Input
Amino acid sequence: MGFPHPSHPRETVLLSRHFGDAEARSYAGWMQRGGYQALEKALGMGREQVIDEVKTSGVRGRGGAGFPAGVKWSFMPKERTKPHYLCCNADEGEPGTFKDRELMRWTPHAVLEGCAIAAYAIQAEHVYVYIRGEFTEAIRVMQAAIDEAYAKGILGQNVLGRGVRIEMTIHRGAGAYICGEETALMNSIEGKRGNPRIKPPFPAAAGLWGCPTTVNNVETLAAVPHIIEKGAAWYKGLSLSNPKSTGTKLFSICGNVAKPGNYEVTMGFPLRDLLYEMAGGIPGGRKLKAVQPGGCSVPFITAEEAAGALLDYEGCVAAGTQLGSGGMIVYDDACDIVYQVMRLARFYAHESCAQCTQCREGTAWTTKILQKILRGEGRMEDLDVLVDLGEQMTGKTICVLSDSCAVAVVSAIQKFRPDFEAYIRSGRAVATA
Amino acid sequence: MSQAGTRTHAPGDAPAPPKVFEGAGRRELDAILKRYPDRQAALLPALWMVQAKHGWVSPAAMAEVAEVLGLTVASVKGVVTFYTMYHQHPVGKHFVQVCTTSPCNVCGAEGVVAAFLKATGCARMGATSPDGQWTIVEAECLGACGFATPVMIDDDLIESVTAESVPALVAKYR
Output
């Protein structure tokens, strides 16, 4: 299958196998496709064994941070003296990223199965699936799957007759990018403003309602059944470049690209092949100007840097950027990069929770300075001020929203300085603002 | 972005809206409360219930939510104002959010906004149309970047909207 395009022969189709296959959404359809065998297998294994398997597989957090998932699970207390919780982070909001939405709306039972295995492993009796408020279709499809799973004994007091209790509840967000940050997400579930919490304590020590909690991204959890079913060694073997990056990754390609959509490739796949061979390259006879391979919170890279980049955690760093969430934003040479950078800064200013001064003021002033440049009223010193501001916004706040804004703006100035200088020199105002 | 309506409401200047958490509403809330270990956790779901019934979250509704969940009105208001999807003012019959963040922006999203304003007769973003039918706002990333430009009309997410396809879309919802 594949959605919105048929799967490309060079894709490694694991998580996206049933994208576009509406019958895979129902319990019956999912069982026909081999559903819940991994959960059966996991419940027959010891909890520690499940955690070890996931640890050995090398799967890293697909939400953007890339922290090894099995290691995260192993931080949970072995003795349960308080309730343990699992949160499935489906607050997908990183501009450029739309993979979790597809996972939930085409393969809800795959997400559910991953959640159930994780919950068993970390002794969580309740899973909260935090879905962003705008994903109304994903919420409907996931709720239908959860209802069916309860009816079939996959969820509830006695999962698959094994005496394990797993409850699952969808918690609908209400429009806040920051709630994708794991501690903000927990506050939002608790019915509070989505302000990130100071760490430590980390969620495994004190998370939801002060209890041990693990937060995993949808895509990470969806990979778990495959790891349990086919084994860690097999999953680890899915690596084309650096052995520290394993498995498959969904890349959401968007912006100025001929065939936007999700493409699933083995870690280490060349960016160039993904962009030109699978996604059809840049439309309209134009040329590539810049790419953000991991959502808007990672550094911009130029066409030259993108040409040799390999898509895994280390490969992206070597190319001067990051893998992030895999939301690949493509900008062609007709793009006004200064204007787009202002739009990104404005996004962060809008989404800042405003707890930390560096972020609240930094994102707002970054936006104002960029808008001034776009009005044709900029001075050359403004570029230095923006870079200096970026330094003040990095590594100084409770979460990394501020850093993300800085990284996008500063990398754009470094890579495309002549574009910024042209506005300042000419005193010309942007046509579209 | 700004979702300010065209009207302002002083407390007490409107008749009290019907209660949300009575009868079937109360039973729905009780079922939600069973899913959480404390009452405050039901705040976001309760606010969604309010908005589904009234179309916005009025000061009177905030007071009702505070009462049923045992919270202060100030803390409820603090939450309502944090999340952009709760309307703090009445909006048009159809609430339209157009994503204009960079991935959609480079695909012509601002033209889609302009087309919506023109087709609905809204004077500007955030202002309700004279017939009370439409409110158009820009949204920051709707999470469907591969289907530029995604637009939410009420609870429906519509993919791949172009400036040219807007008039037909507006006619469909009108």
User: Anything to note?
Assistant: The longest strand of chain A covers residues 124-131. The mean pLDDT of chain A is 97. The radius of gyration of chain A is 22 Å.
